[in-house]
């Protein structure tokens, strides 16, 4: 999956959502929505691990994880974060060969 293409698709969907619900999606909104979605992911995790009321639902857990990723992509776009470059710099560099000591 190409992260930049995924982000572009998520932003198109977010445009549709914003037009239908008359929402201004600035970066503050995106960060608050990211936090909301993380809370919903946490609630599903608690249900699945028997620490909250409700019916455990593994599909709902995946859906909430997708919402978190979607909102993170929107937040990064609104904040000018190149997430692909940041992932390379912060995480993926550890997969590169290291020079011998």
Attribute tags:
101 residues; mainly alpha; single chain
Brief write-up:
By secondary structure, the protein is mainly alpha-helical. The chain has four helices and no strands. It has helices spanning 3-21, 27-48, 58-79, 83-90.
Shape, per Cα inertia axes: flat
What's the main sheet like? none
Question: Whole-number radius of gyration?
Answer: 17 Å
Mean pLDDT figure: 96
Helix content: over 70%
The count of strands amounts to: 0
User: What structural category do the secondary elements indicate?
Assistant: mainly alpha
Helices and strands, in N-to-C order? HHHH
Provide a count of the helices.
4
Low-confidence stretches: none
Oligomeric state of the chains in view: single chain
Provide a descriptive summary of the structure in words.
- The chain is mainly α and 101 residues long.
- It has 4 helices and no strands.
- It has helices spanning 3-21, 27-48, 58-79, 83-90.
- α1 (3-21) packs across α3 and α2 runs antiparallel to α3.
- It is flat and about 55 Å long.
- The mean pLDDT is 96.
How is the topology of this model organized?
Elements: H1 3-21, H2 27-48, H3 58-79, H4 83-90
Helix pairs in contact: 1-3, 2-3
């Amino acid at each position: 999956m190409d992260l930049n293409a995924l982000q572009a698709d998520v932003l198109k969907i977010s445009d549709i959502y914003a037009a239908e619900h008359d929402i201004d999606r600035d970066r503050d909104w995106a960060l608050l929505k990211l936090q909301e979605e993380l809370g919903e992911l946490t609630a599903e995790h608690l249900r699945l691990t028997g620490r909250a009321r409700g019916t455990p639902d593994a599909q709902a857990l995946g859906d909430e994880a997708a919402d978190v990723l979607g909102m993170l992509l929107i937040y990064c776009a609104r904040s000018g974060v190149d997430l692909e470059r940041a992932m390379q710099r912060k995480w993926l560099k550890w997969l590169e060969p290291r020079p011998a000591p």
